[in-house]
Amino acid sequence: MKEKSQSYNISSVENACHILDCFLTMGNELSSVAVQKELGISANMAFRTLTTLQNCGYLHYNPETEKYRISLKVLPLCNNVINSMQIRRIALPILQAVHDSHPQLNINMAAIEGGEVFSIHRFNGVGLSHFEFDPGTRLKAHATAVGKILLSGLEDEEIDRILEKSGMKAYTDKSITDKKALMEEIQEIRQKKIAWCREEHIEHVNGVAAPIYNAAGEIAASVSLGCFDSVVSLEELERLVPELKNTADSISYAAGFSQASTG
Q1: Same domain flag for 45 and 134
Q2: Are residues 35 and 110 in the same domain?
Q3: 21, 39, 137, 237: which has the fewest C-beta neighbours closer than 10 Å?
């Protein structure tokens, strides 16, 4: 079925989509030459496709640097995707109540699509340095608590494919970079329904996450509590685990799931 669907692809549209992907992986500004080399297409095709995207308003061209960047026109599309997620709409008032009770904590909600983890909402802790976890931000599946939870809901074969594609970069000296070690942790996460990030992504920042289920019993999203250890100690964060699990269960129940974990 996949091969059949790909036969309907329009190469010029496919090139345009790949060019937009380049801005996510290669940098904020790209030249026509860089796009040509990355996609393996002709200079003429790269220039024409970039120009088309520019004329449609999705790219902005800087004549001084001779490079293109994503335009603001894409923002409404991103917001439309995030705002249309039912699980997010259900979760917001519940998470707001948690934020009101614990304003010192960062509260993150994430989902996985196409093998990539994305932030879909965030409540920033009051007075804290803010991390780059704004809605739409790609998160590191192997180095974040929300990412590990989402991985735990996938088959092992799918996790292998994701890790093979994304790699397991070390962000701190506590990052897990060994696939076997990560898979052992994921097995434990599947049992306990809780995932930890102990300074694995950002030094002195700890986080704990729980799964949010949909009506079909699938992990639809994950929610985490996190903070600098100078503000909330690891021990204090551990004491908040029951409340985090209850919060995730409340969202799951509201989404139609009838057997959310309460253990």
Answers
A1: no
A2: no
A3: 21
